[in-house]
C-alpha cells in the first residue's frame, strides 16, 4: 500500500487526520471529518475526544455511523447529552478546540455554503443546509474544512449563499467572534491556511506532483501563496492499513 494506491477519500482523510495532532476536542461532521478524527485518534491524537452533533461526547462507536442519528454512535460513548446541552454548554461554553466540517463552497475568508447552488429562489441544487455548522463555526476555537473537489465552482470569490459565516462577517456586524474561524482547508490539491480574522486563505502545501499554478487555476479568486510551499507527505502504508482495516472496513465513506 503506497500513496499511489490511495483513493482521493483516503488521501484527504489521512492528510486531514494529521492536522489534529495535539488537539484535545473535535466536533466532527459525518463523512470525511469522521474518518479523519477516527484515524487521528489511532495515530497522532490518542487522547482526542470526538463530539457529534447528536449529543454524543467521547465517541467510541463499534463501527462508523452512517448518519448523525445512527444509534451506533452511542456504543462506548463517554457521555450522551441532549442537543440543547451540547450546543448551549459544550459548544457555546468554548469547550471545542476544533470544529471539523465539509461544505459545497468556500470563499477566501473561510465562509461556507452548504445550502444552495445557484439562486436561492431557483437553485440548481438544494443542499442539506446548516445543521449545526453555523454554531460550530461561531463557537469552536478553530475550524478545519475538508473539500473533496478543488475547482472554481467550489472555491469561489463570491458564494452563492453564505450558510456559515466566519469571524470577518461577525466583526463587520459588530459581533466579537469566539474563535478564529476556518484555519485549515484540506483538498485533493493541497492545504490552504489562515490564522484568523483579517486574513485570507493562502496556499501552504501541495500534494506530490501538484504545482502552485495548478492550484491557482483551480481557485476562483487570486489565491495568496506562502513564501515557502511545502510538499505533503503521502499516506504511509501504516496509515492506509488503519484507515481501511480498522476505521472503515465496511467502506461506509471510503470510495
From TrEMBL:
InterPro entries: CoA_trans_fam_I, NagB/RpiA_transferase-like. Its EC number is 2.8.3.-. The keyword Transferase applies. Pfam families: CoA_trans (PF01144). It is an enzyme of class 2 (transferase). Keywords: Transferase. The keyword Transferase applies. One of its GO terms (molecular function) is transferase activity. Belongs to the 3-oxoacid CoA-transferase subunit B family. This is CoA-transferase. It comes from Streptomyces kurssanovii.
Amino acid at each position: 500500500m503506497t500513496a499511489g494506491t490511495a483513493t482521493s477519500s483516503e488521501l484527504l482523510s489521512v492528510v486531514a487526520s494529521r492536522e489534529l495532532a495535539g488537539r484535545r476536542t473535535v466536533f466532527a461532521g459525518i463523512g470525511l471529518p469522521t474518518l479523519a478524527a477516527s484515524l487521528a485518534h489511532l495515530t497522532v491524537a490518542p487522547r482526542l475526544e470526538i463530539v457529534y452533533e447528536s449529543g454524543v461526547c467521547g465517541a467510541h462507536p463499534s463501527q462508523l455511523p452512517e448518519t448523525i442519528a445512527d444509534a451506533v454512535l452511542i456504543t462506548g460513548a463517554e457521555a450522551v447529552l441532549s442537543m440543547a446541552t451540547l450546543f448551549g454548554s459544550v459548544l457555546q461554553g468554548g469547550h471545542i478546540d476544533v470544529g471539523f466540517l465539509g461544505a459545497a463552497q468556500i470563499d477566501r475568508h473561510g465562509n461556507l455554503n452548504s445550502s444552495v447552488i445557484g439562486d436561492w429562489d431557483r437553485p440548481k441544487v438544494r443542499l442539506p443546509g446548516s445543521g449545526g455548522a453555523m454554531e460550530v463555526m461561531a463557537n469552536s476555537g478553530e475550524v478545519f474544512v475538508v473539500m473533496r473537489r478543488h475547482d472554481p465552482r467550489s472555491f469561489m470569490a463570491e458564494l452563492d449563499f453564505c450558510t456559515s459565516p466566519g469571524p470577518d462577517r461577525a466583526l463587520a456586524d459588530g459581533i466579537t467572534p469566539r474563535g478564529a474561524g476556518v484555519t485549515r482547508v484540506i483538498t485533493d490539491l493541497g492545504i490552504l491556511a489562515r490564522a484568523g480574522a483579517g486574513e485570507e486563505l493562502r496556499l501552504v502545501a501541495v500534494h506530490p506532483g501538484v504545482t502552485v499554478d495548478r492550484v491557482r487555476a483551480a481557485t476562483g479568486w487570486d489565491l495568496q501563496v506562502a513564501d515557502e510551499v511545502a510538499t505533503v507527505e503521502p499516506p504511509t502504508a501504516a496509515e492506509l492499513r488503519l484507515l481501511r482495516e480498522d476505521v472503515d472496513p465496511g467502506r461506509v465513506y471510503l470510495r
